[in-house]
## 1
Amino acid sequence: MVARDKNYLAGGEVMDLINTIRPEYEGRVAFLAAHLGHPDGQAFARRHDMEDAIVVIFDADGSPTRRLIIPQTADEVRAALDVVTTP
């Protein structure tokens, strides 16, 4: 889950970064965004202490396992995702 506020650039850049590796996790990971301009996205972000460009990785039970603050590389995101996708 990435938090995205269209008024800031970092969230869009992180979404673009995630989109480069998304095919590698097809069928294993649901990629979602908390739209910070929408009340539901704002509520979700408050519950998980998120702001623009923060990525939170959840396990299959919905528990947060990793928190990335403005990840800079695809490898950084892969490492966090591999924790929850490796059997």
## 2
Amino acid sequence: MDEIQLIRSMVAETELPKSDDLSPVRERLIAAARTETSPVVARRRGRRFTLVGAVGIAAAIAAVVVLAPFGGPAPSAEAAGVLRRAADVVRGLQEAAPRADQFVYTKTEHPDGVREAWQSVDGTRDGMVQNDPSEEPAWLPGCRDGKAQATKGGRPVPGRFTDCTPEPAYRPDMPTDVAAMLVFLNRNGLDDLDRSSANDRPVNGEDVAYLLRENYLSPQSRAALFEALALVPDLTLEQDERDAAGRRGVKISWPDTDDHGGGDLILDPETYTVLGSEDTAVLARGVVDQVGQRP
């Protein structure tokens, strides 16, 4: 049974919850999406990617057909094949899970320069982002007991705190199979939108790229993410493309639609490592014990 048949059978066999059952869950999801922490330079805001609870999962499974509608445009066979091969390769990797007290280090190249970031694995420790070597680094306050240190101009404000929800750089609860990953992407991708309807919008390519660029994911979660992307309609594949650092790879692109902008990822053609995109390059990533260390 392939992925589409699996999803179809799940939709047919599962009784969807009533509207009254979904209302509390919808309210919690909207509230979580709109929760704000103190502003931080160059940090993505509002993108929490919180997993959906058990109530409402059946409705979310039904909504997955938006990503790969039955009878609709089929994904590019060549692009989908590359993504599935990437999933097979990545799934076989052996990587130790980081400790909660560690930090995910990411060095990326953007049109405006090179950025280095140290993000707390569990979201409770204070991290840092360096956007320009000539400027002071910005502080990334950790969220402890629902409170985070307030910041101004990237620096902590003594004695002032804001309400918060931890934003971990590593998610051990990320889905590891394609059906659950489709649900996760469909329900949690875009900021400040009610995505509890069966008419949810398709996955945003930039959401996927953000997860792969900025977060440390287990091999199983990365594999599931590649497999989920293989089901998105109208993918395109371009050989011998270059990322922002000039490295050659294969480019997988998502189309620009009325619902969201297009996105792309450039992969190493042999290892399927995510190199970046046309305007972004992941130069280094790893796990370190403290802010300021490099792998």
